[in-house]
What we know:
Strand order of the largest sheet: 2-1-3-6-7
Helix content: 25-40%
CATH topology: Rossmann fold
InterPro entries: Flavoprotein-like_sf (IPR029039), FMN_Rdtase-like_dom (IPR005025), NAD(P)H-dep_reductase (IPR050712)
CATH class: Alpha Beta
Distance between the termini: 16 Å
Largest sheet: 5 strands, parallel
Organism: Paenochrobactrum gallinarii
Strand content: 15-25%
Protein name: NAD(P)H-dependent FMN reductase
Order of helices and strands: EHEHHEHEEEHEH
GO molecular function, one term: oxidoreductase activity
Pfam families: FMN_red (PF03358)
Number of domains: 1
Number of helices: 6
CATH superfamily: Flavodoxin domain
Shape: globular
Mean pLDDT: 94
Amino acid sequence: MSTKILVFAGSVRNGAFSQHMADAATHELEKQGAQVTQISLRDYPLPIMDEDLQSEHGIPEPAMQLARIIANHDGLMICSPEYNASIPPLLKNTLDWVSRISKDGDAPLRPYAGLTTALCSTSNGAFAGMRGLYHLRAVLMAVGAQVVTEQCSVSGAANAFDADNALKDERSQRALTNACRILIENCSLRPRT
């Protein structure tokens, strides 16, 4: 049975570089034999995380839907932009809402527990989004995900992808290939319970 990997971009902006990265990651993961589901956070709109809102109305249904999808996969690949040297608010808000979930009806549901995760970033700047990945890694570890060391950070993102959303630069492609390989291998080593 092939490893099931969920992929999404941390931005829903039209023409987002992180979406090109998610497309490239999906292609590479499939090439390496994974069964990939790619989603857009645009399809899971959420209010700003607020404990009073949660107390009054419960967990929003889009967060529950995401939690079920995440729990149904062996691994996760997040392709994120960097906003002011950190995590984009859409992505952080999504991660926070899903982290509030501990059950689905009467059944336990801990979507991040033991979830093997890999990270990619894109930026037009020279830092290639790496500063944002540092913060993203810390958040994911805090909620119980297992984040692999290998990652892919692409600078000059406006010119980094070809018409098929493949990476043009050989070094960047090697980094993506390696991150995908390690993600798949670690999913096999740490099966989710």
